[in-house]
Amino acid sequence: RVDYGSGTFLDLFKTHVQDHSSKEALRFEEEILSYSDLDARATVLASDLLSLGLEKGSIVGIMLPRSIDFLVSVLGILKAGCAFLPIDTIYPLSRKSHMISNSGMSVLISTDALLSSDSSLLADSKVTCLSLTNLGAVSSISEVLFPTVDSSDLAYVLYTSGSTGLPKGVMISHGSLYNYLNWGRSVYMEGEDCSMALFSSISFDLTITSMLLPLVSGHSLRIYGEGDAISVLDSVIRDGYAKVLKLTPSHLQILRIEGYDLSGISRLIVGGEQLSRDLASSIQTLGGSSLELYNEYGPTEATIGCVLYQYDSSVDQDRAHVLIGKPTANNEIYILNSSMGLLPTGVLGELYIGGDQLFDGYIGLESETSSRLIPNPYKEGGYLYRTGDMGRWLSDGNIEFLGRKDSQVK
Fold it and tell me: Per-residue pLDDT for 164 more than 80?
């Protein structure tokens, strides 16, 4: 077990505000914010939110395009002791409406232009809209008492894809996020230049890695605006700014088809879909021997990623897909049969996840939560998340992912 102590993202971020106050934190087009500038703007927003009467643990929606305002919103919400819920601006109206009503949010941060394009979005709703153009007009910071945020408090809510019914709101605590960020920065952010790029949907959990890891590691984040996946990814690679990228196998397919020179990239972190060995091998060739390629596995309910494998082109030549690897710090994987019995090496079973990164449940779905988040029969007081994914242990302690138990498309 790795002892990270107890804390939150805010604690990790504060350290770098103090140590690197003038260092670049965010860059979007021609606008740059230092760590101290970002902290100051987030503090003003947090003050405004609290002046609206929000209580600790309230859910605040963010419906903004990728921008500095989006990152300011995330940090301001967390500073106010609230939880952020990102809503992708390109989602259909029905999905946006479900997320707003189901989450019980009382405040939505957006723009007049976006709200006017979906005029019926907040019809008959008691949700208050807040625009960042009026930042600081609501309150005086000196008059606001900021709450103490601890590891048990809610940090964010992400909605599942809804491939097996209505999307479910997954609640993630500060403690779960804190464990992931501490582990992630020790693996992914080692080196003098570990700048990252934010270019994926704000509603994907892999995006949490891109936007928060640099800020708890003293590095910088380059934000890319909206556009089709090919053109945005083209900008990311051609700019040469980001040295660490978090992306999906679908993104890798684009890189392979376009034949980009990836020698300037230090690390690629892949998640969200199963990674074929053929694709990984092609990407490794484009990046050369210095490129580190990581396959990160984990459902939204286990806070972004909880199993990791570093691809090595010299091994596993006979496998169709890259292994998902071994559990990361303070996470546990159990491969069980239908009777919840432990399975030996090489035997196919269902993956269950335990440890420090489990979610707090689904919003308003107690029966669904209790059916997926169950008491751990092998650890008193612990819980397991039933993933529905199938796999087996290999003799070296790695895990081979072998598809879904049901027909769900991930």
Answer: no
**Cα(361)–Cα(371) distance, integer angstroms:** 10
**Contact assessment for residue 307 and residue 326, using Cβ atoms and an 8 Å cutoff:** yes
Q: What string of DSSP letters covers 383-406? A: EEEEEEEEEEE-TTS-EEEEEESS
pTM of the model: 0.95
Predicted confidence at residue 410, as pLDDT, reads: 47
CA atoms within 13 A on the CB side of 82: 34
d(CA 158, CA 200): 14
Q: Comparing C-alpha atoms, which of 107, 125, 114 is closest to residue 48?
A: 107
**How many CB atoms are closer than 10 A to CB 85?**
25
Residues 198, 178: Cα–Cα separation, whole Å: 20
3-state secondary structure of 129: strand
Q: What is the pLDDT of residues 311-321, one digit of tens each?
A: 998 887 789 99
Place of tokens 């997926």: 372
What angle, rounded to 10 degrees, do the helices at 174-188 and 205-212 form? Answer: 60
In the predicted model, what is the mean pLDDT of the chain?
93
Q: What is the 3-state secondary structure (H, E, C) of 264-287?
A: CCCEEEECCCCCEHHHHHHHHHHH
Q: What is the predicted pLDDT for the residue at 131?
A: 85
**CA-based radius of gyration for the chain:** 21
Contact 348, 402 (CB under 8 A): yes
Contact between residue 71 and residue 221 where contact means Cβ atoms under 8 Å apart: yes
CB atoms within 10 A of CB 283: 25
